[in-house]
């Protein structure tokens, strides 16, 4: 019987973090959008401590990861744990590891006294949406907007 454990990422895991980010982007058909580098991940996750990563390990081997950071909610006057990325290698799916990662993150929210646990999901990803709803997650009436690249520069400099 396989054993699932978790561990926090360390600085020496930067290449593994980037590998999981690329796997997720490939799954989402967005690999061409990944411009992340090990240097930038190291800077923002470990040097500036703007995000955290946990790994799911089956018998000591990293098979999934979650990258998260804090946001602030004025309505509840508390921080939210915002899950940016969640991924389990395809050959390890169907074992409950995704749910176990979410449960581990929910424990972090509770232990640290955060106000909410939130994430986004691509609208076409019905299997994930159905999974999240089965856990009791609620879809809110929010649209996510991104501004980057030339559009960001234009707004900043107009």
Could you list some keywords that capture this structure?
alpha+beta, 158 residues, 25% strand, five-stranded mixed beta sheet, single chain, 5 strands
Verbal overview:
With 158 residues, the chain is of the alpha+beta class. Helix content is 37%, strand content 25%. It has helices at residues 14-27, 38-47, 97-112, 126-134, 149-157, and strands at 4-8, 52-58, 61-73, 78-88, 116-119. A 5-stranded mixed beta sheet has the order 1-2-3-4-5. A hairpin with a 2-residue loop joins strand 2 (52-58) and strand 3 (61-73). Helix 1 packs across helix 2. The chain starts with a strand and ends with a helix. The model has no long low-confidence stretch (mean pLDDT 95).
Q: What is the tally of beta strands?
A: 5
Net shape: globular
Question: What is the H/E string?
Answer: EHHEEEHEHH
Summarize model confidence as the mean pLDDT. 95
SS field, number of helical segments: 5
Helix content: 25-40%
Distance from first to last alpha carbon? 60 Å
Which percent band covers the strand fraction? 25-35%
Outline the biggest β-sheet. 5 strands, mixed
Q: In which order are the strands of the major sheet placed? A: 1-2-3-4-5
Which residues form runs of ≥5 with pLDDT under 50? none
Give the structural class.
Answer: alpha+beta
Radius of gyration: 16 Å
């Amino acid at each position: 019987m396989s054993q699932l454990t978790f561990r926090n990422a360390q600085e020496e895991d930067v290449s593994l973090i980037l590998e999981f980010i690329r796997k997720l982007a490939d799954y989402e058909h967005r690999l061409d959008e990944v411009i992340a580098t090990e240097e930038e991940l190291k800077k923002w996750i470990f040097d500036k401590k703007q995000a955290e990563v946990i790994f799911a390990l089956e018998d000591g081997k990293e098979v999934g990861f979650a990258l998260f950071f804090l946001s602030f909610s004025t309505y509840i006057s508390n921080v939210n744990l915002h899950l940016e990325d969640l991924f389990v290698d395809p050959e390890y799916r169907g074992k409950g590891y995704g749910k176990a990662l979410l449960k581990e993150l929910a424990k972090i929210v509770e232990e640290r006294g955060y106000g909410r646990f939130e994430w986004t999901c691509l609208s076409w990803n019905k299997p994930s949406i159905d999974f999240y709803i089965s856990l009791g997650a609620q879809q809110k009436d929010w649209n996510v907007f991104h501004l980057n690249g030339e559009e960001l520069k234009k707004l900043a400099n107009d």
